[in-house]
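Help needed: design a sequence for this.
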């Protein structure tokens, strides 16, 4: 069995951040009261998941006819939500945010004395050695330098990067106030050298409330959750008499997406297994959804064979994965494990970031877990896959059908999110 530290190492950046902050809060309380230091709770006894997953009633695989209904429903809801004024307004601001993010990074480079004259040549390894940068930020630095390649301030020559002009350019520098320039230059360089922890920059003041509410309140996530809810409502309406829905959510975290789905499910004919790699989050879910008797809570590490963890093969009609599958070591392996959980005709509901936003360079991109990917042939620079790449990966993994609800050129595509469905063959 993995140790607590090993499970924490597999958390997505946001979850690890929330866990660290909450445990820090618990530790402070324990110090005041004289209680023992906090740790993850001991593992509860594991139910017989094979029996739990079967339950009473007939399984409800998604037939071809129902699949068509789900797709039509998702498209209709996506068309409605993508026109929401707040979503459109957010998308309109995104190009400006991308440019400003490049300005923030350039302020840090100037503070470090890097690329201050045309022709200056640097490598990632050289910067790490000469500026006391932590080696774990190798991928971070490479993404920074590629940003300036995109801005045509730097050119890549093999493993080297050569300045075409001093960084920042006057146009980038003009995007920042003196206060912004100083704040980002000072903090970003301090994070690179380990003088400042990324959490202190990402969560000034130590509050995690903003991050916890992100998956519920931001327009782009209301778009994702709204489509998902519409699709599940259509599934529920089509459930035959005596049928039973069997759900498993992976990486459920604080339950932001979960909360938007559960009200749509019939309690008497649903079983919903809420899982995460950390027991800390399954315990949070247990408290949050304590009034819903059809939920069960289990630890699941999707980078390890789920059958070896006690999960029965082919026993779930739906797997829900919201903003989590990209945060794994190897996508091919991850999807193989997802498929082992799904019954014939089973559906994967996948919510994912599909565009690397430059703001990630000074937010989640610094945090442990974001750069855990090792399949460089698929993901050479960052862990995110485009919708087209998800399609290829899912079909290669044995899924028969795939649909993406974010249309090219839409506000949702600009913001870099998608809701996708993939279905296994009914005879799989």
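Sure. Designed sequence:
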């Amino acid at each position: 069995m993995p140790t607590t530290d090993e499970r924490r190492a597999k958390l997505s950046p946001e979850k690890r951040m929330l866990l660290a902050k909450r445990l820090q809060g618990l530790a402070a309380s324990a110090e005041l009261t004289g209680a023992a230091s906090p740790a993850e709770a001991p593992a509860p006894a594991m139910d017989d998941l094979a029996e739990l997953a079967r339950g009473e009633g007939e399984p409800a695989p998604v037939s071809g006819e129902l699949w068509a209904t789900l797709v039509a429903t998702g498209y209709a809801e996506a068309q409605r939500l993508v026109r929401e004024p707040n979503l459109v307004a957010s998308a309109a601001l995104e190009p400006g945010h991308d440019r400003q993010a490049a300005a923030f990074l350039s302020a840090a480079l100037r503070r470090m004395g890097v690329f201050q004259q045309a022709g200056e040549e640097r490598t990632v390894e050289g910067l790490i050695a000469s500026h006391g940068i932590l080696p774990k930020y190798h991928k971070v630095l490479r993404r920074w330098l590629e940003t300036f390649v995109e801005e045509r301030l730097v050119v890549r020559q093999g493993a080297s990067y050569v300045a075409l002009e001093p960084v920042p350019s006057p146009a980038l520098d003009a995007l920042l106030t003196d206060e912004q320039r100083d704040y980002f230059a000072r903090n970003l360089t301090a994070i690179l050298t380990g003088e400042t922890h990324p959490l202190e920059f990402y969560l000034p003041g130590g509050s995690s409330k903003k991050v916890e509410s992100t998956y519920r309140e931001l327009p782009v996530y209301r778009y994702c959750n709204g489509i998902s809810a519409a699709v599940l409502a259509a599934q529920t309406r089509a459930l035959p008499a005596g049928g039973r829905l069997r759900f498993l959510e992976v990486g459920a975290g604080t339950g932001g997406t979960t909360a938007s789905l559960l009200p749509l499910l019939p309690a008497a004919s649903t079983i919903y297994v809420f899982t995460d790699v950390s027991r800390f989050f399954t315990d949070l879910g247990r408290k949050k959804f304590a009034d819903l008797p059809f939920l069960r809570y289990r630890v699941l590490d999707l980078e390890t064979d789920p059958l070896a963890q006690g999960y029965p093969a082919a026993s779930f009609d739906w797997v829900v994965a919201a903003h989590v599958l990209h945060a794994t070591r190897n996508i091919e392996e991850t999807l193989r494990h997802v498929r082992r959980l799904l019954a014939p005709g089973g559906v994967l509901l996948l919510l994912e970031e599909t565009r690397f936003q430059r703001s990630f360079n000074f937010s989640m991109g610094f945090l442990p877990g974001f750069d855990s990917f090792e399949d460089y042939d698929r993901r050479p620079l960052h862990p995110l896959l485009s919708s087209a790449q998800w399609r290829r990966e899912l079909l290669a993994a044995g899924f028969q059908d795939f649909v993406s609800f974010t249309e090219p050129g839409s506000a949702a595509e600009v913001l870099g999110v998608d809701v996708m469905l993939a279905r296994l063959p009914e005879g799989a």
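Residues 21-46 have pLDDT under 50 and may be disordered.
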